[in-house]
Amino acid sequence: MKAIWNNTVISESQDTVVVEGNHYFPHESIKSAYFKPSNTNTVCPWKGTASYYTIDVNGKENPDAAWFYPEVSELAKGIKNRVAFWRGVTIEE
């Protein structure tokens, strides 16, 4: 699977986990040069507190377009150390 934004592959892996329709990529599969930490956090009642990345590709930013759970609940252990995408990031095979 590939995560693509601004015509650039920002993550690629054969090992994604799908939860609630979102592909969670292994954290080590993201191309870190395109990711900047964000101060945004949200809380999911069953997964925990999410942290976000702003994606920056060729000078174009997509704020908070990737998220991950630094600490996951027992119910969400399958997405530990994984990153998911939204806000225009496309997922393709």
Quick recap:
This protein is mostly beta strands and 93 residues long.
List the helices and strands and how they pair.
Layout: E1 2-5, E2 8-12, E3 17-19, E4 22-26, E5 35-44, E6 48-57, E7 60-68, E8 82-85, E9 90-92
Antiparallel strand pairs: 1-2, 1-9, 3-4, 4-8, 5-6, 6-7, 7-8
Query: Structural class, from secondary structure content?
Result: mainly beta
- The arrangement of helices and strands along the chain is EEEEEEEEE
Percentage of residues in DSSP E strands: over 45%
Global Rg: 12 Å
- The CATH homologous superfamily is named Domain of unknown function (DUF427)
Characterize the structure shown:
The chain contains no helices and nine strands. The mean pLDDT is 97. The protein is mainly beta and 93 residues long. The chain has one domain (2-92): Metal Binding Protein, Guanine Nucleotide Exchange Factor, Chain A (Beta Complex), CATH 2.170.150. A hairpin with a 3-residue loop joins strand 5 and strand 6 (48-57). It has a six-stranded antiparallel β-sheet, with no helix packed on it. Strands 2-1-9 form a three-stranded antiparallel β-sheet, with no helix packed on it. The chain has strands spanning 2-5, 8-12, 17-19, 22-26, 35-44, 48-57, 60-68, 82-85, 90-92. InterPro entries: DUF427 (IPR007361), DUF427_sf (IPR038694). Residues 1-87 form the DUF427 domain. This is DUF427 domain-containing protein.
